[in-house]
Design a protein that fits this description.
It is a single chain. This protein is mainly beta. About 0% of the residues lie in helices and about 50% in strands. The strands form two sheets. Strands 2, 4, 5, 6, 9, 10 and 11 form a seven-stranded mixed sheet that branches. It has a four-stranded antiparallel sheet with strand order 1-3-8-7, with no helix packed on it. Strand 5 and strand 6 form a beta hairpin. It starts with a strand and ends with a strand. The mean pLDDT is about 95.
Length: about 120
């Protein structure tokens, strides 16, 4: 599975961005898809995930209400809509795919990772 993230960029605080992740290769529409982020000098942290079929979504508590994850299995894509962005959201955002056996919030639950897309939020 190859994952390609896009949509990052520079945005002012309060603005919005929509990230997209396209999956190709040996893909299964029932893979759990997730987004993580990693700021400079910090650990990679869970942002959001979406279940097989897109019926369940998961978010880190601090981002609930501002971020929304969605997926289009027909197109093998997953999106992350980010609203009311803050400087603290500045990070490289990475998409990941896994089978869900080890949950959805841990890095070890994902077998495939994209290269990441940089989001910079200015104050």
């Amino acid at each position: 599975v190859q994952l390609q993230a896009s949509g990052g960029g520079l945005v002012q605080a309060g603005g919005s961005l929509r990230l997209s992740c396209a999956a190709s290769g040996r893909t299964k529409s029932n893979d759990v898809m997730g987004w993580f982020r990693q700021a400079p000098g910090k650990e990679r942290e869970f942002v959001a995930a979406i279940s097989m079929g897109g019926t369940s979504t998961y978010y880190t508590d601090s981002l609930k209400g501002r971020f929304a994850i969605s997926r289009d299995n027909a197109k093998n894509t997953v999106a992350l809509q980010m609203n009311n962005l803050k400087p603290g959201d500045t990070a490289v955002y990475l998409c990941a795919a896994g089978d869900g056996r080890l949950g959805v919030t841990s890095k070890i639950a994902y077998d495939y990772w994209g290269q990441g897309t940089l989001v910079t939020v200015s104050s």
